[in-house]
Structures are given as structure tokens and as C-alpha cells.
From TrEMBL, chain A:
Residues 56-259 form the Tubulin/FtsZ GTPase domain. Keywords: GTP-binding, Microtubule, Nucleotide-binding. Belongs to the tubulin family. GO terms for cellular component: microtubule. This is Tubulin/FtsZ GTPase domain-containing protein. One of its GO terms (molecular function) is GTP binding. Pfam families: Tubulin (PF00091).
TrEMBL record, chain B:
The keyword Kinase does not apply. GO terms for cellular component: centriole; cilium; microtubule; nucleus. This is Tubulin delta chain. Belongs to the tubulin family. Gene3D superfamilies: Tubulin/FtsZ, GTPase domain.
């Protein structure tokens, strides 16, 4: 089962540069010399085709290094500037990305949606189509397209929304998941309200489901976790992006690894979108551990985690799900908690809240406990996550 | 069996590989069993997305020939096929939609064999958002082609297991499997070439009533009580399960004439006792289930209640009693599912997912009316 990951625009690619090392770590493919060699687990080996393919085709050797086992990422790096994508090509991950998988151009889109959508979307259309085709060809079972971009700029929002219709046209049955970054209240681009509005229209129509993420909400989470101040200045997005990357890992974990109740991306797309066009889902994540953050907390009990993951302060959007009306909620837990405990806790905490659920969503929530994949040191985190579809998210026509 | 290696006579079907890849395929130990790797059919598309229509309109037609071929090969190894049994859930997309298609295909291929489907109904308070629609579509397709449908309800299994502290799907599945295997294994007071057919026949004597419910009661520990009184308790408890649920303290009502008013109507009951001294349970069983108050007048007297037993110890239980019943209690579940299903339908919620796979409004209305009809039959008992 393969997931194809498109990183569009500066924001998308910067998130990608945090995401891919995390993916490599999750599969145990990124090990420092000093680390003790850990055996390659069967779950990891089975799941490796989700984010990687191998050139030339051969069975995966149990090498713990992506270079030696010749693994390439199933990713397309698209930006109309060169700087960020170039950093991939010169950085430590350069062997992970095939040269044919990146597309750059000069000049950029100048934070103008129309330039991204019409100019670049028109000019690059045939090249992108070809890239999509060859990316899909490398997958034996294409499960979903994951597209990461920002709504505020020009390339991500403009070109990103031009790619969605192409996907719909060529792969009508494959789910298109858009993960898009909303600038939030600290608006740093003057034209962003336009860019957001125009791309929302395309997202409503062409994406299977959209996960909007609010930069300000995530920044607040990072502040609360005590991220060191200097990190904030020289690389403002580093912590934000690592939260987003963790959210992406959790979101796709159900499709990649076996669990007690299987939750594929298409399950999310069916369950959380009751009506055509009502496809904006909010998400939250708990607990979050940032690299180098100094405030370190004691792990909470499982029951408390379920409660905390629904709380307002852990939402990746600036909303309070408890105050809205829900069409449905999915709890995805990566922990060893048995089903009986999870259900019990959910009943206890949700009874008071979920009467707000709109009646025709027939049920309360989708529940999918996943067993933790115990692998590599710091990256096994007991981990709860709620996706809730909030009816109050308005649609711009 | 000597040192033979046992292969399960079963075919595994899914639309993604993560579950099947964890099953047991190769086991070289003597007397060990495993599934056969040849009998795996995976239409790998990353699941059906909890969408019945994907399973029924896409996966079904694609993989059907392949599956029937596997079934043919498997049946050629048997000298006498007694029945086909399917296992699945109605909440998701694969177990519901894909298996509906396969069940229809098996019926048209093997029109004279007993076809028994068993489905797990989803948690009634929510599991999958499309669960009610999926369940309705599955029942509507399977009801006309299957000989019998055994329904398990995750909610009630959950409730029954709640006494042991922690459990997961594994324990729930063992619970289900024990009941099924208690029902389907050989008995000492019954042997027939046609096997299951003769046991099943009284239970499904009327073609409108095909839904079977299994209820089990067991004792594990050795107690001071003698075997007969232990059996008596087990059987009495099973009997209580057939009383109307919404009445408080029915069990306290002493007067049998009065208490019989609260009995749920049954088409037929079958009591299976497995364990030591189960041969002695005949009269107790008759006492509890023989009463004609249970059964509608039109059911033939001889078909109403049967009692089967085997003296061998079953699993780890000293005494294991199972009631296979075709009764009105199912109305509660059906009603619940239909109510919520209609609710989604009239608000047009989730409907577009089905239409995308060309399962249209008309088909849905048809499905709803079929299930309404099943409910009507049962509630008018
Ligand atoms: N008793 C029991 N119920 C299960 C188990 N696994 C899933 N379920 C129930 O089955 C429903 C979900 O259906 P699944 O079987 O996971 O779905 P599927 O048939 O594989 O279909 P897709 O995932 O949509 O392709 C829910 O109601 C679950 O509660 C299990 O092992 N035991
Ligand atoms: N979370 C996050 N947001 C970013 C990042 N880079 C840019 N943004 C946001 O994206 C918007 C600008 O879009 P950008 O991606 O730079 O423009 P593009 O390259 O033309 O698509 C602004 O609202 C930024 O706040 C990043 O690395 N992480
Ligand atoms: Mg499945």
C-alpha cells in the first residue's frame, strides 16, 4: 500500500524536510554510527513500501541505511523557487530523492495565487502530469495522495490547487488528502486572505478531505511546551513543522502499520465527510514532545490523554471542538491500551460532550486503537489523536 | 491424525494485506495447523474505506472468479460438503460489501448447498459512521440467498466480557468462535450424513425467519455442587435471556403462568450441552424450553425444540451450554439499525460516498424496505 507525498511551495518543502527524517527514524533507517544496531522489525519491513520504493527493484536487504538499501522516497518536491528544494538536494537526505521527482522554476509566484494557479499551473501542467504518472507507476497499490502546502503564499496555494483537479481527473478513485497551513492571526503575507479564499474553493471541490492547520495555534502549543526561545528566532518554523510532521505520521500510521482495528486513509475520508463539500477536518495531537524543548513532562495516564487530546489547547486549529457541533470524531491511538479501557474512558469523558453531535451521524465516534510499534528509542511515543469534523467550518463559494 | 500437518479448510479474503500478513501460514511442527497460503485472495486497494458499495460494486466483480476457483479447488478435496460458512463484519466495507457479493456468487454456483453467513454487528453506540447503512445493505442482499444468518452483536459481547478486566478484539473473537464451534462440532446423540442440514432445518423452518442468535453460558471452576444442579443453573440462566428485556426483575416472578407472558416468541430453539454428564440434561432442557408459550401456533410441535449434547469437555470449560435461537429479540438490534440508517438517509448524510460507486437512491430504498420487512416479520411473531 503506497502513499504518495507531494510537497508544494516553500512551506510544503520545509515541512517535508522535517517529515522525512522522522519517517526514516520510524522505519529505523536513520541511525547514527554511535547507535547500537537494532534489528529490522517485520512490521517495519512490511510497511516500508508505503513511503519508499527501491531502485533497482530487489528485495530489501536488512540494511539499516536508506542509502545502502537504495531506497527512494515516494515524494514530489514542487516549488517555483529553488532555494528550499536545493537544500534537499545538497543536504544529508539528497540520496533519498530522485532528481526526476523535483520541479523548480524561476521566478516564483510572488505570493500571488493567480500566478501559481494560472501561469505556473498552465505552463507546468504537462510536466506535472508526467511526474504524477511516473510516481503512480512506481506504486503497485496507490492508496492516497498526501499534499502538503500553505494557503498563504502563491506557489503552494495556487499551484497546489491546480494539481488537485489533475489528480481527480487521472486517479478518480484514489483519495486526495490536503494538509494545508493557514497563516493564522500573525498574518505575514499581505495577499494571503485572497490566496486562502481562492484555494479554499478548489479544496472544497477537489480534495477528499482537508486538514487545515493554524500556524498560530501550533505556535501556542510550542510556547506552552517551552520550546527554547532562540530556536524561535533563527528558524521560526522548525518547531511548528515538527508538530505538523508528527501529525502527518500519526494520520498515516493506520494505513501503514497493522493495528487492532485497521484505519486506512479511505476510512477517514468516508467516515468524516458526511456531505460532499463538508470536508474540512480539524485535528489535535497529544502528547507532543519537541526536540530540545526544556520543559519536559511526566507521561499522563491513558485515560487522561484521551481527555487532553480533545481539549482546546491541543487543537491544531484555533477552535474549541467542545463548543461546536461535531459530525463525527475519530480517535486514533498508538498505544498498547486494550480496547475495553479505551471504550470505557471514551464513554466516561465523552458522554458529557457528545450530545452535541449532530444526530444523523448515527453514532458517536470512530475508534481505532493501534498497538504501538515498539521500535526506535525516542520515536515511540504513546500517542493519542482526535480528528473531529466541525460543522461550523464555513465554506467559501 | 498421526504426524500430519493440518491445514484449515478456509479461504481468506481482504482488501488490504495488513491483517492477513499477521496470520499463521507456515508451521512445520507436527500436529500443528495453519492457513494455506494458496487460499488467500487480497484485492489490495487499501481497504474499502468502510463503504459497502466499494466492496460490492468494485472488489466483488474483480475478485469473484478467483475466489470461486479457490472454493472449487477446496471443495474438490472434500468428499461431502456439508455447508459453507462465511465470517465477516457488517460495519466496514470489505466484510459487508465484498462478502455480500461473494455470498451471492456462491449461491448461484452451489445452489443446493447449505449456505450460512455469520456477521458481527457493530457497536450500537458507534463504531463506524457508515455502519448502519452498511449493515442494512448487507442484510438486504444476503437475506434472500443465505439459508441462515448468524448475528453477533459487538455491544452485547462487550457487555458480557466486561466482567473480566481488560480485553481486546482478540478476546471478543474467541468468544464468538467458541459459540460457533460449539454449534457446529459433532454431537453424541446425533449423527447424520447430511449433518448440519438436519440440525439447521427446524431452526429455519420458515423462509421469512432466518436470523439466528447464539447465547452461551459456561462454568469453568470445579464447585461442590453436583453436575446436575450446575447444568440446571446454566440452562436456567440461558432461559432468562429469552425474556423480554425491558421488564424489570422478570426473573423474580415465581408464577410460571404469569412469567410465560413475558417470553419472547421463538421460531425454534436448539440447546447444545457439552461437558461431563451432559447426557443427563435432557429433562431440564425440556422443562425450560419445551413450553409451547414460546412458539407461535403455526410452528410444528416436533420442530420447536431440540436438545443435543456431547460428553467431551469443550475448550477449557467443564460445562458449556449454548442456545441457538431464532427469536424476536433480534428486533431490538434491527430497529436500532434501521432507525439510525433512516436518519442518515433522510438527511442525505454519507449518501454521496455510495453514489460515487453507482449504488443509487433506488437501490438504497429497496434495501431499506427489505430490512423493514424482516423487522416486520419478526415483530409480528
Ligand atoms: N468482534 C469483532 N469485531 C470486529 C473485529 N474487527 C473489526 N470488528 C468490527 O467490524 C467493524 C469494522 O469492520 P472491519 O471488519 O474492520 O472492516 P472491513 O470489513 O475490513 O472493511 P474496510 O476496512 O472498510 O475495508 C466494526 O464494527 C468493528 O467493531 C474483530 O476482530 N472482532
Ligand atoms: N508552518 C509553516 N508555515 C510556513 C512555513 N513556511 C511558510 N509558511 C507559511 O506559508 C505562508 C507563505 O507561503 P510560502 O509557502 O512561503 O509561499 P509559496 O512558496 O509561494 O507557497 C505564510 O503564511 C507562512 O506563514 C513553514 O515552514 N512552516
Ligand atoms: Mg479492513
Amino acid at each position: 500500500m503506497c502513499l504518495s507525498c507531494f510537497l508544494v511551495g516553500q512551506c510544503g518543502n520545509q515541512i517535508g524536510s522535517v517529515l522525512w527524517p522522522l519517517i526514516l527514524k520510524e522505519y529505523g533507517l536513520l541511525q547514527q554510527e554511535s547507535d547500537k544496531k537494532q534489528p529490522f522489525k517485520k512490521v517495519q519491513e512490511d510497511a516500508i513500501h508505503s513511503f519508499f520504493y527501491q531502485v533497482p527493484e530487489k528485495t530489501i536487504s536488512c540494511s539499516l541505511d536508506f542509502k545502502k538499501s537504495n531506497l527512494k522516497a515516494r515524494a514530489l518536491l514542487i516549488d517555483m523557487e529553488e532555494s528550499v528544494v536545493q537544500r534537499f538536494q545538497t543536504g544529508p537526505l539528497r540520496d533519498l530523492f530522485d532528481n526526476a521527482c523535483s520541479l523548480t522554476n524561476y521566478p516564483g509566484s510572488g505570493n500571488n495565487w493567480a500566478v501559481g494557479y494560472f501561469t505556473h499551473g498552465g505552463e507546468q501542467k504537462s510536466i506535472i502530469k508526467e511526474m504524477l504518472r511516473s510516481a503512480a507507476e512506481k506504486c503497485d497499490r496507490l492508496h492516497c495522495f498526501l499534499q502538503v502546502f500553505s494557503l498563504g503564499g502563491g506557489t503552494g496555494s495556487g499551484l497546489g490547487s491546480a494539481i488537485l483537479p489533475l489528480l481527480e481527473e487521472q486517479f478518480p478513485k484514489v483519495d486526495r488528502v490536503a494538509v494545508c497551513v493557514h497563516p493564522g492571526v500573525n498574518n505575514d503575507v499581505v495577499t494571503s486572505p485572497y490566496n486562502i479564499a481562492f484555494s479554499m474553493k478548489k479544496l472544497v471541490e477537489y480534495a477528499s478531505c482537508v486538514f487545515p492547520l493554524d500556524n498560530k495555534a501550533i505556535l501556542d502549543i510550542c510556547d506552552r511546551l517551552g520550546a527554547p526561545a532562540e530556536l524561535k528566532t533563527w528558524s521560526p518554523y522548525k518547531n511548528i513543522n515538527s508538530v505538523i510532521a508528527k501529525m502527518l505520521l500519526a494520520l498515516t500510521s493506520g494505513a501503514r502499520f497493522p493495528g487492532t482495528l485497521n484505519l486506512d486513509i479511505s476510512d477517514i475520508a468516508t467516515n468524516m465527510v458526511p456531505f460532499y463539500r463538508l470536508n474540512f477536518l480539524s485535528s489535535s495531537l497529544f502528547p507532543i514532545k519537541l526536540p530540545k524543548a526544556n520543559g519536559f513532562r511526566i507521561m499522563n495516564r491513558e485515560s487522561e490523554q484521551i481527555f487532553r487530546v480533545c481539549a482546546k489547547e491541543n487543537q491544531l486549529l484555533r477552535i474549541d471542538p467542545m463548543k461546536g457541533r461535531l459530525f463525527g470524531a475519530t480517535l486514533l491511538s498508538r498505544s498498547k491500551a486494550p480496547l475495553s479501557d479505551l471504550r470505557q474512558n471514551i464513554e466516561r469523558y465523552f458522554c458529557s460532550i457528545l450530545f452535541l453531535l449532530i444526530l444523523y451521524s448515527a453514532l458517536r465516534f470512530s475508534l481505532s486503537p493501534h498497538t504501538v510499534i515498539r521500535t526506535h528509542g525516542p520515536y515511540t511515543w504513546p500517542h493519542c489523536k482526535v480528528f473531529a469534523n466541525i460543522g461550523s467550518v464555513s465554506i467559501i463559494h | 491424525m498421526g504426524n500430519k500437518h493440518l491445514r484449515a479448510r478456509s479461504i481468506l479474503v481482504d482488501t488490504e494485506d495488513k491483517v492477513i500478513s499477521r496470520l499463521k501460514f507456515l508451521d512445520s511442527e507436527p500436529n500443528a495447523w495453519s492457513f494455506s497460503a494458496e487460499n488467500v485472495v487480497i484485492n489490495n486497494r487499501g481497504g474499502c474505506g468502510n463503504n459497502w458499495a466499494v466492496g460490492y460494486t468494485e472488489c466483488g466483480p474483480e475478485s469473484c472468479v478467483n475466489i470461486l476457483e479457490k472454493i472449487r479447488k477446496e471443495t474438490e478435496k472434500c468428499d461431502n460438503i456439508m455447508y459453507f460458512l462465511t465470517l465477516g463484519s457488517t460495519g466496514g466495507g470489505t466484510g459487508s460489501g465484498f462478502s455480500s457479493y461473494i455470498i451471492e456468487a456462491i449461491r448461484s454456483e452451489y445452489s443446493h448447498k447449505v449456505l450460512m453467513a455469520s456477521f458481527v454487528l457493530p457497536y450500537s453506540d458507534g463504531d463506524v459512521n457508515t455502519q448502519n447503512l452498511n449493515t442494512i445493505f448487507t442484510l438486504s442482499k444476503c437475506y434472500s440467498v443465505c439459508d441462515a444468518i448468524v448475528l453477533f452483536n459487538n455491544s452485547s459481547i462487550h457487555k458480557q466480557l466486561n466482567s473480566c478486566k481488560k480485553f481486546g478484539y482478540f478476546d471478543m473473537n474467541r468468544f464468538i468462535s467458541e459459540q460457533l464451534s460449539c454449534f457446529l462440532q459433532p454431537f453424541s446423540n446425533f449423527s447424520s450424513i447430511s449433518g448440519v442440514y438436519d440440525i439447521l432445518m427446524p431452526l429455519i423452518s420458515h423462509p421469512q425467519y432466518k436470523l439466528l442468535a447464539l447465547m452461551a453460558n459456561s462454568s469453568e471452576c470445579h464447585t461442590k455442587f453436583n453436575a446436575i444442579s450446575k447444568w440446571e443453573t446454566l440452562i436456567r440462566n440461558l432461559n432468562f435471556k429469552l425474556r423480554k428485556l425491558d421488564l424489570p426483575n422478570v426473573s423474580r416472578i415465581r408464577d410460571t403462568r404469569l412469567s410465560n407472558q413475558y417470553l419472547e416468541k421463538c421460531i425454534a430453539n436448539l440447546l447444545v450441552c457439552r461437558g461431563a454428564d451432559s447426557i443427563l440434561t435432557e429433562s431440564v432442557a425440556k422443562k425450560h424450553f419445551g413450553s409451547s408459550d414460546y412458539y407461535p401456533l403455526w410452528t410444528p410441535k416436533s420442530e420447536r425444540f431440540s436438545h443435543l449434547y456431547h460428553n467431551r469437555k469443550f475448550c477449557d470449560y467443564n460445562e458449556y451450554a449454548l442456545l441457538v435461537s431464532n427469536n424476536r429479540l433480534i428486533c431490538k438490534d434491527l430497529n436500532n439499525i434501521l432507525e439510525r440508517g433512516w436518519c442518515s438517509y433522510v438527511h442525505n448524510a454519507y449518501i454521496h460516498h455510495y453514489k460515487k460507486y453507482s449504488f443509487e437512491q433506488e437501490d438504497m430504498i429497496n434495501a431499506f424496505s427489505k430490512v423493514e420487512n424482516i423487522l416486520k416479520c419478526y415483530s409480528s411473531l
